[in-house]
Amino acid sequence: MPERTRVGVGLVSVGWMGRVHARAYRAVGMHYPDVTASVSLVSAADVNADARQYAADALGFATTTDDWRKVIDDPEVDVVSICTPNYLHHEVALAAASAGKPFWIEKPMGRGAAESADIARAATAAGIVTSVGFNYRHAPAVARIRELVRGGHLGRITNVRVALLADYSADPRGALTWRFRTEEAGSGVLGDLLSHGADLAQFTVGRISEVTALTERFIRERPLPSNASSGHFSLGSASAETGEVENEDYAALLVRFDSGAVGVMDSSRVAVGPHAEYTLEIYGTLGSVRWDFQRFNELQIADSADGYRTVMAGPEAGDFSRFQPGRGTSMGFDDLKTIEAQLFLRSVVEGRQVGPSASDAWSASEIVAAALRSDERRAWESVPTVEGATTFDS
Q1: Mean pLDDT value of segment 329-345
Q2: Three-state SS for 51?
Q3: What is the pLDDT of residue 392?
Q4: Fewer beta carbons within 10 Å, N or C terminal of the chain?
C-alpha cells in the first residue's frame, strides 16, 4: 500500500453545500483508493447551533465552533472548505491563504472581479493549491465533450450555446435573502449560475475574450425574511414588509473566444418550468455535441449527415468507471463533488494544481464583470486575461 498523507479538514459553514463537501471528502477513499490522502474531519464552524450539532453527529467532525477563525487557526486543520455566503468568501479565503492552508471554495469566489483577483493572488503568493466548485465540468459527458473538441473531432469550432435556466427564485414570495442584495451577493444570476456556464465554455472550447450583454430584474421586490435562518428556498408572508431586489434575475450574453468561435449564453433564476436546465451545445465544421445536466449521463453527438445519436456515458468517459461499472447506470450530483474533492486532495498531496483553480474562478468573474459593464454601457467589453494557473487552457 502507498504511504498516505494525513489531511485534516476544516469546514466553514455547515449548510447544504458544506454537507456536500463533507460527504465528498469521506467518499474519496472509496472511489479513489489511489489518492494518497488520509482524510480527517477536524473542525466545522457555523453560527447555527443545530448545524454544528449535525456536523458532529452526522458528518463526524471531531470539534465544532461558532467562530470560523478558530477553524483556520487550528493546527490540526491542513485544508479548508469555504461554503459560506458570498460576502464572507473574501475574508475567509484570505485568512486561509495567510495561514498557508489550501482551500476549496464555492463560486462565485468573490462578490466581483476585484475580490476574486485578491483571493487568487493571495493563493499564488502563499504558494498553495486551491479548488473551486465548478462541479459541472466534472460530469463524464463533459469530459468526453472536451476530448472531442480538443482532439479536433468536431473540426473547427464555430459557435457555442450555453443556457442555465432555473426556477429557484421564480416565486415572488421567495424571501429577500442575501442572494438578492448586491453588498452581500455581488451580482445575481450572473455569478450564481452563469459563472458555471462561463467555466463550462472555457473548459471545453477555450478562453472567452469579449462579451456584450443585457440583464434584467423581473421581480423587483420580495418579502423580508422572517428570521435570520431563512435560506435559498424560504417563502415570505404575503403581508410581510418588502425590500428591493438589487441584482439581476436574468442575463444574456454574446461572446467571442480567443479561437475565433462565437457564442450565446443566457441564464435565469426565475424561469417557470425548468428546474435545473443547464445545457451546453458546441458546433463545429465536422459535427456538434449537446449536453443537458438534467440528463447528465447522456450526450448527443452528430458527426454525420444522419443527425444526432444519443450516447450514454460509460467507462471511457471521464471518471465514470470510478462510480459505476457500465453505461446505463447513472451517476448523481454528489458524485461530481466527490470528483472535485479528489482533485483537491490530489493537488494537496502532490503539490500541484490539478483541479479548477482560484485563477479559473477569477477568469469566470472577469466575464461576469465584463457583462455587467457591457449592460451598463451598451457596448462590447474585453475580458482581461488573469494571472496564475488556469486549468481550462491546459
Answers
A1: 97
A2: helix
A3: 85
A4: N
Domain 139-327+357-382 has CATH 2.40.160.40: no
Over the stretch 276-327, which tens digit does the pLDDT of each residue have? 999 999 999 999 999 999 999 999 999 988 999 999 999 999 999 999 999 9
Name which of 20, 42, 43, 29 is nearest 1 in CA terms.
29
Task: Write the Ramachandran bin of 173: left for phi over 0, alpha for psi from -120 to 50, otherwise beta.
Answer: alpha
Distance, first Cα to last Cα, the chain: 31
The torsion angles phi and psi of 229, rounded to 5 degrees, stand at -95, 5
Beta strands in 239-297 (DSSP E): 242-244, 250-257, 262-268, 276-284, 288-292
All structural domains of the chain with their residue ranges: 5-135, 139-327+357-382
Q: Work out the number of other CB atoms within 10 angstroms of the CB of residue 274.
A: 16
User: What fold, for 5-135?
Assistant: Rossmann fold (3.40.50)
What is the reported pTM? 0.96
- pLDDT attached to residue 378: 98
DSSP letter string, 160-197: EEEEEEE-TT-STTB---GGG-HHHHSSSHIIIIIHHH
Distance CA 262, CA 85 (A): 33
- Three-state SS string over 330-353 comes to CCCHHHHHHHHHHHHHHHHHHCCC
Sign of CA dihedral 90, 96, 99, 103: negative
